[in-house]
């Protein structure tokens, strides 16, 4: 396969992931608005929907935009779950976000130097270990 063919396949894969990434971003923005408006249950559902879009195979989860959205939506999901009194509701999302971070850092080592990535990873690890009382973000 030629260089151009390989680059074309990569561009095509990115294009396929654009639609679910955009939908996830919309659901995340809706979740933030709902949380600010006091609609906690709806915010929880919207954050979970955003994460579902980000789990689609066409999404390049290690790309900086997708990773940022994964971390943000997971943090919001955890915050809202705590407000609802369901501390276990976001555990799987946090484990998934940590896995995405580790994979992204293995592919793009510079991501591990970003403060928001390190802070989110530390917060999720702490919450998964059960050491944290509230959402630190």
Summary keywords:
globular; mainly alpha; Serine Threonine Protein Phosphatase 5, Tetratricopeptide repeat; single chain; 137 residues; 5 helices
Structural account:
The protein is mainly α. It has one domain: Serine Threonine Protein Phosphatase 5, Tetratricopeptide repeat (Alpha Horseshoe). The chain has helices spanning 3-36, 40-54, 64-83, 91-107, 115-128.
Could you provide a short overview of the structure?
The protein is 73% helix and 0% strand. With 137 residues, the chain is mainly alpha-helical.
Number of helices: 5
Percentage of residues in helical conformation: over 70%
Give the beta-strand count. 0
| Structural classification | mainly alpha
**Low-confidence regions:** 133-137
Largest sheet: none
Radius of gyration: 16 Å
CATH architecture verdict: Alpha Horseshoe
Strand content: under 5%
**First-residue to last-residue Cα separation:** 46 Å
Query: Based on CA inertia axes, which overall geometry fits?
Result: globular
Order of helices and strands: HHHHH
State the domain count: 1
What would the average pLDDT be, to the nearest integer? 86
Q: Can you identify the CATH class? A: Mainly Alpha
């Amino acid at each position: 396969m030629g260089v151009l063919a390989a680059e074309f396949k990569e561009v095509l894969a990115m294009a396929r992931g654009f639609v679910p990434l955009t939908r996830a971003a919309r659901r995340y923005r809706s979740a933030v608005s709902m949380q600010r408006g006091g609609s906690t249950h709806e915010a929880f559902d919207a954050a979970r929907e955003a994460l579902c879009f980000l789990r689609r195979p066409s999404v390049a989860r290690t790309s900086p935009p997708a990773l940022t959205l994964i971390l943000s939506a997971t943090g919001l999901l955890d915050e809202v779950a705590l407000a609802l009194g369901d501390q276990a509701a976001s555990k799987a999302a946090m484990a998934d976000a940590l896995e995405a971070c580790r994979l992204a850092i293995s592919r793009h080592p510079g991501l591990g130097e970003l403060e928001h990535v390190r802070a989110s990873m530390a917060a999720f690890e702490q919450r998964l270990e059960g050491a944290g009382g509230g959402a630190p973000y």
